[in-house]
Amino acid sequence: MHIGVGSWDYGMIRDDNGNWINPGKGHGKHAATTENAKRYIDFAAQHNITGLLVEGWNTGWEHWIGFEDREGVFDFVTPYPDYDLEEV
């Protein structure tokens, strides 16, 4: 969906020292958006593809990279602001 172009997380960026930080806003590379998901769902339907996995729509990805303790970081019911779960 976004190899080399997008990101799972909504806002993590690297600072000048290479450390992961969360600036508290989207970085513009988040690929699991409502628009992208609907586009890929339509593509799958047109080509008789019966399944599609969309990852990265839920909050918590900010703590996946660069953190040793990853237990319980994901919230599987709360989407990022650019993903409308009900619409998709």
From TrEMBL:
Classification via InterPro entries: Aldolase_TIM (IPR013785), GH97_catalytic (IPR019563), Glycosyl_hydrolase_97 (IPR052720)
The Glycosyl-hydrolase 97 catalytic domain covers: 25-88
Q: Where are the transmembrane segments?
A: none
In Pfam terms, one family for this protein is Glyco_hydro_97
* Top-rank taxon, per record: Eukaryota
Q: What is this protein called?
A: Glycosyl-hydrolase 97 catalytic domain-containing protein
Q: Which organism is it from?
A: Cyprideis torosa
